[in-house]
Amino acid sequence: MSTPHYVTIGQGQLRVWRSGSGPDLLVLPGLIAAASTRADQLARDLPGWTVTTVDLPGTGGSSGVWAEDIAGLARLIAEAACALGLPSCPLLSFDLAGPLAVALQDGEGGWQPDAILLAEAAAAEGWTERGRTPAPLAPRDDGTHLAVLWAHLRDAHVLEPRDARHPAAQGAPLPDPAALDAMLRTAAAAPRRYEALWNLCLDAMPNVTDQAGIVHVEDLGAAAKTLSAMLAGRPDAKPLPPTQPVADPLRVWHDYADTPQGRVHLRRAGRGRPLLALQSAPGSSAPLLPLLHGLASGWEVIAPDYLGNGESDKPDREVDIGMLAEDALAVADALGLDSFDLWGTHTGALVALELTVRHPERVGRAVLEAPVLIPADFSADILTNYFPPLVADRWGLHLLQAWNMRRDMFLFWPWYRQERAAARAIGVPGAAVLHDWTMGLLASGAHYDRSYRAAFHYDTRARLPRLTWPALICAGPADMLVDGLAEAKRLAPAGTEVTPTPATVWYPGQAADAVEATIARYAAFLRGDAPAADSHPIA
Fold it and tell me: Could you give the dihedral angle defined by the CA atoms of residues 448, 450, 451 and 453, in that order, rounded to the nearest 10 degrees?
């Protein structure tokens, strides 16, 4: 399996995937297969090379960097190659990434390949000949843009490039649903940028065909034969350098932490005392961006995706809150954090609680937002009905399932209780926000439910009285778990502050002044300021 890694450049960050061993080979994966899928494939089919495969600018983990032309996009890739310490080495490019490979020849970005191989260029030439472009991919309120994108990707593999009426009888093996899903998530990280990237490359493709010094290879077997002649005398690749923060300390950046249970994806921002921010389930920590932005001026805020969720590894294991607490501690250990504060919401509140109970010597202060305190029969009902299987489907049927699950979570509590009495007042967010939330769920895939189930199995009532360290228990008025504050007041030990807050800062559509006041409340508690007059602390 390939290993993901972020590289920081002037504009932001690109993600790469590293696999294999031996001399360096840089790979541009094209526009119909994910970089992770290509890296895994090439580790099998091109032995003897250390393969570094790039999420192209505007896609996947590189979606935050962009340029408006081919030359600018190539400069971003070259800058990343320099930052990674790659020597001049062969470059293997697939399908529509050919123009980017050609643009790297001039070395304008500070790096250039010493050989360029183009694979699957015939398909790209066929798409160019008939002007094959994606339908508009801007997020729609009904989520059907995801089905449009899926059809675009699947058809690119299935159909004759020059004739959309017939299946292609020859070519690389067709991708399975998991590989298509990986590419959909890569393209859908910023769907309009993917659409623009496709069109830029399509327009530039006619300039590639007759370029001098370019080796066209029909398939990976031919690529392996050509590359084998280039192996002799090349040194083995060096390890990738650690990911560096972006220049602006208040800006969120991405990183990974290696733990005994797997590689954990992190969102990070700020400087100061470390604060681990622990997400709700079932998606990623991306909804916590308002929290990271709000507290980055006083803390180094680190928001991991749970193992099994988001962009973290997906170990095949049963999950409970104790395990997630130990995973969070392992992240702190990997980052060299001897002491840290905690902020957790919903599932994350339980993880923060358990970590504080188990390892009080490592924790300073803890904010527990809306810990799960609901009746046992309600928990049982949720465990029975809340978590239908979510598995990639050959026709992309799982995409509308994920979209509508996420959408209904804003409409009803719980989402599967489709009745008037279950209606929520929070409101459905706009299509772009709902798209991002859905992508977090899709990134968790078939594992999405494991951390979420753990929250409803956890005995909050037994663990909450065992707090021995300063904690703030709170919830915003729109939070479906806000009613649990009354019971939290009865259960929490003396000295614990229990208070409502003006907002749930990671919910969409919250009033700006309420979010600002809530962030200020968190900051005051984490600094150790006296509680506000209306905080109703437990005496």
Answer: 110
Residues 214 and 261 reside in one and the same domain:
no
Residues 171 and 306 grouped into a single domain: no
Using a cut of 0.90, tell me whether the model's pTM lies above it.
yes
Q: Rounded to an integer, what distance in angstroms lies between the CA atom of residue 30 and that of residue 519?
A: 42
> What tokens were used for 252?
């969120």
> Average pLDDT in the 183-197 region?
98
d(CA 322, CA 457): 11
- Between CA 392 and CA 397, with CA 394 as vertex, the angle to 5 degrees is 65
Which DSSP helix (H) or strand (E) runs through 328?
helix 321-334
pLDDT tens figures, 428-440: 999 999 999 999 9
CA–CA distances in Å: residue 344 to residues 139, 341, 537: 30, 10, 19
Domain limits for position 326: 253-374+458-527
In whole angstroms, give the CA distance from residue 60 to residue 254. 12
Q: Are residues 47 and 105 in the same domain?
A: yes
- Closest by Cα among 86, 71, 82, 77 to 24: 86
The pLDDT confidence band at residue 532, using thresholds 50, 70 and 90, is very low
Give alpha helix (H) positions in 1-120. 35-45, 70-83, 98-103
Which residue type sits at 53? T
Residue 136 is predicted with a pLDDT of 96
Residue 220 sits in the same domain as residue 258: no
Write out the two tokens for 421: 């009495």
Are 366 and 342 in contact by the 8 Å Cβ rule? The answer is: yes
Q: How many C-beta atoms surround the C-beta of residue 3 within 10 A?
A: 15
User: Sign of the CA dihedral 169, 172, 176, 182?
Assistant: negative
With H, G, I as helix, E, B as strand and everything else as coil, classify residue 471.
strand
538 in a structural domain: no
How far from 77 is each of 26, 60, 83, 94, 514, CA to CA, in Å? 10, 14, 10, 15, 41
The residue among 330, 328, 286, 268 whose CA lies nearest residue 451 is 328
β-strand 363-369 against 340-345: which pairing, if any?
parallel
Give φ, ψ of 343 to 5 degrees.
Answer: -135, 125
The pLDDT confidence band at residue 209, using thresholds 50, 70 and 90, is confident
Of the residues 194, 228, 262, the one at which a domain ends: 228
The model's confidence at residue 534, banded by pLDDT at 50, 70 and 90, is very low
Mean pLDDT of the residues in the chain: 96
Could you tell me the two tokens for 7? 């590289």
